Amino acid sequence: MKLQHNLGGLEGLDPITPEIEVFVEPWEKRIFGIHTAMMALSNHLDTANPQYMIDQVPTTFKSFWTWGHLRMGAEAMHPFEYFQLRYYEKWLGGISGFFVSEGYITQEELDTRTAELLESSEKAEAPLPMGGNPAIDTQVVKYLREGDSPMRPLAAPAKFSVGDQVRVKNTLVADHTRLPGNLQGHVAEVVKVYDNAFTYFFPTADGIGTPMPVYSLAFKPEELWAESLMDPNSLYYNDIFEVYLEAA
What is the number of domains present in the chain? Predict the structure, then answer.
């Protein structure tokens, strides 16, 4: 299990510096916009919910990109590097690496341009290119308004019901996962069964990707944390895909 996806209840991670502002640096708005545009132009949107006529959008971006790919890139980082970087710095690294891996730019081009901007404040502060294609702008705005829902019709009855006791499986994961590591092996009560099935953007090694039921689980604090870390009058809730659960 990747360390950075397994932090619940760990001590000694200080110093923690909470950032109040959504965007701390101006460039963070730009990387957020790039990520949003990539999702809005992803080649999978002709099968999304809702469907988009993405093949008619005149874009040179022809790749598959979702929130899942962004998360997968962050989880693939070395844990020490992960904790050294700020939130949008992880985004910048993941997106830059994706453009290199997909052949849109080369690593040499990226390194050369980075060096130029670091050496020259004039180049770094130069106005961004203007223009663009109105059809691409229309698609990005449409995506922002309508999104890409993971909700799908429920093809088979849910295995568990409200009130059932379930255990989170111990799942060996080398790559991307949506299962918090600190929940593995622990028992919880099903407090809600969502009406629809939910898919994930792409298949993962630990079993998500196809539409399946999702449950809201209530964990007792003594199930998860040492006495010094728990509030005995609290419950901890988490939504979990069915493939991660078994009867307790």
Answer: 2
